[in-house]
Amino acid sequence: MPQHLTVGHLLCQLQNLDPDLPIRLAVNPDWPFAHYLGIDVVVGDDMAFIAEDGQEGYLPASVRNALAWA
Fold first, then answer.
1. How many CB atoms lie within 10 A of CB 59?
2. Beta bridge partners of 17
3. I need a surface site. Which of 25, 45, 55, 62 has the fewest CB within 10 A?
């Protein structure tokens, strides 16, 4: 995965997933929480932004392990 993710890279990662699958943002390996994503995509300064929309809870252990955050 490139450090500077592009819309194209993200679309490739998501294209074969169930479109009804919820998405969460994994944040900070020292405090491994899952966060909701906002529903709006805002484009500005030649970048696309998706806002974080609150914390759901701890990341599942399987996700922490897959991210090597365990």
1. 23
2. none
3. 45
